[in-house]
Amino acid sequence: MPKILETIGKGIVYCGANGLGLAAKMANNLITSAQSVAISEAMTLAIKAGIDPDALYEVLKGATANSFTLNSKVPAFLRDDYNPGFKLSLMCKDLNIITSVAKKLGSPTMVGGLVEQIFHMCKEEHGEKDSGAVSLFYQQQAGVSFKSRSEK
């Protein structure tokens, strides 16, 4: 089986018994969805305060906030590009599964539950867009835009 997996992916990590790979996927999706919400909320605050979106991105990617999620989502925000890579509606489905499994296991998901609620508030309007479209909810609430103000 490892040889088959190596033909379709890289960085194959054995997680243990059957189903534990799914637990790793749930952990990853919980982290990235929470990061998307935190990035959206922080950018909204800074832009509402008056900082230029491009300047903010330069600060964040050179600071401790730097992450894979920041560097994959913010450039798209600056281009006003929410074409789906991983649809927001699918992240909602995954967050439902994550919080349900966590409840069954007795594992707290205080942040996960809040992130799930935020994504669900965005689903009707932005469900077919990229999961980063959660930022559009914040932008609409605050009356700001993450779109780059510079011509590129």
From TrEMBL:
Keyword Cytoplasm: no
Coiled-coil ranges (or none): none
Pfam families tied to this protein: NAD_binding_11
SUPFAM superfamilies: 6-phosphogluconate dehydrogenase C-terminal domain-like (SSF48179)
Keywords: NAD, Oxidoreductase
InterPro entries: 6-PGluconate_DH-like_C_sf, 6PGD_dom2, HIBADH-like_NADP-bd
An MF annotation (GO) of this entry: NAD binding
Domain 3-hydroxyisobutyrate dehydrogenase-like NAD-binding span(s) in chain numbering: 19-130
Descriptive protein name: 3-hydroxyisobutyrate dehydrogenase-like NAD-binding domain-containing protein
Protein's organism: Paenibacillus cremeus
